[in-house]
Hints:
Elements: H1 2-8, H2 13-21, H3 27-34, H4 38-50, E1 54-61, E2 64-71, H5 73-76, H6 79-92, E3 116-117, E4 123-124
Antiparallel strand pairs: 1-2, 3-4
Amino acid sequence: MARTLEIVGERWTLLVVREAFLGRTRFAEIRERLGVAPDVLTDRLDTLVAFGVLERSPYRDGGRTRDEYLLTDAGRGLGPVLIALAEWGDEHRPPRVPQATHAVDGATGATLRVALLREDGSVADPLTMQLRTDRPA
């Protein structure tokens, strides 16, 4: 967990990843949506690129070449993490505003939820989960 938080644990980082999932991949649109300072956003984008969560892709804008930031496979792998965080917040935080983001299946539109699965594919109750530091053989 600590290694993962080295990459995504800084303030704004997961929100930047969320914006990429929502299709906002350009610096100006991410900054406008989040209201984050430009130097902070630059730092977060550089970190996410350095660790392979996002990749830079050049595009032309009014004669200038700029970069947009696209999710890599590693970045798309954070999707369940974002969903889990949103679900936790919806369940355990007092409602201040309606739920703004939820995950849906791109093929069917059905709502998606995060679940813990046993090796046989059956769903486990998260309240019975235990963390261990030893790895199974």
